[in-house]
Design goal:
It contains 16 helices and 24 strands. It has 507 residues and is an alpha+beta fold.
Length: 507
Amino acid sequence: MSAVPEKTYLMGIDIGAGSLKTMIIDSSGRVRGSAAVDIVTHSPHPLWSEQNPQDWWEAVCTTVPLALKEAGLTAGQIAAISFSAGAHTPVLEDGQGRLVRPAILWNDQRSGAESRELQEKYGDRILAIGLNRPAPTWTLPQFLWLARHEPDAVRRTARVYVAKDWLRSRLTGTWETDRTEAVGTLLFDAANDTWSPELCDMAQWDIATLPPLVTPTTIVGKVTTAAAHASGLAEGTPVVCGTSDTSIETFGAGSVRPGDGTVKLATAGTISVVSREPRVHPTLINYPLAVPGLWYTITGTNSCASAHRWFRDRFMMAPGISGSAAFAEIDRLAATVRPGAEGLLFHPYLQGERAPYWDPMLRADFVGMTFRHDKAHFSRAIYEGIAFSLRDVLDQFRAQEMDIRTARIIGGGSKSATWRQIVADVLNVEILLPETTDASFGAALLAGVGIGVFSDELSAAAVCAKVIDRSTPNSDNVAFYDSLFGVYKEAQASLASVNHALSRITG
């Protein structure tokens, strides 16, 4: 490890589902400055979800100067930079470094047929090699879809990046990825630590287009002259690889020891548990953690804060009311209603569902409406329905004898004390709120490990991952929600065939 630099301000950049955020921290983990820019997601066809990678780069060039200004720093005071982004988001370049097509996001559902085919033909082999089962979230079925529907794009592809790696390459001109991202493509042989020819053949994909592998804390290059001029960064600033958002968020929140749990209330909702090895099972997802030698097992619901935002945008916005004020009103209203929202249930399947159903044709619904229900009840039902969906997820862990009694909570939804308490009561888990929960924060910590500001990942988390609040389960609410969850499950099972019929009829 190199000597600790005199400059110890660190920058993390994260591509979220709806925005890009740049954050600057000091060596104690204090946030000194940040800035975010919205990123547009395009859906040119039903079930499609794509972004233009060039929008990410333009967002970096916008947010870096703003974050530096807020921090009162010059670009030359940044000691290192690192990145994170959602996994499973491939960026394809041709031999001249030009983008081949928009990036397919993790929540894109177009490859449902390919996922089912891969599961039927090769499910056991994919699980054995790649540690996970095929679903539209993963790059393997996405690539098979491209091979069948956009063969020219496949032929033109010379290099595959994952989202954060392509963005990082704008600074360094280099090409590499880390093992968490590699596992996230479902094209990687984890046991043999190499890209899998067998899995690539299933995707009809050229293995030569896949990048070299490094660790998340590897310094992969420095900011080039051209990148410095475009972004406002200092030429020669070290750039550290980074890793996927859930890995980096788990680490940044302080879940760094076996048995630690993390709940994420973001665009998607997830639960993860840290372990010393992958826990391979068809209902669970496994990745290497940012902390060497550890894994985290994770699974989740597709629509979480995205459902929250949908409700705000469709039903709570009005002239003269800002988006943040509308969110605050939802939170205020939800707190005024008793647990159970007077019998109003919400299933948050606005874009199909992952665990435990792995069904892209499921649809969202409100069940049990009466004339008594108003905006406050619907607000409460949104919070509770998403918490019930997370309970559905947690039960997959419990079925494999992987339980948690405490969990750190991250994501935008973690700001709501009402929602945190609902999650604690529905899951019957003590919820710990870290001081800072952004993926960009974890990316900045990894940048510090990469250049020696912190001796290792555990030291970085010990110094910087501070807990500022706790939500303890209320025993009466736990018992009530346990009964209501049974009704939630019964309604879900009853409506699944209706969802499928609606999907067939409407195409």
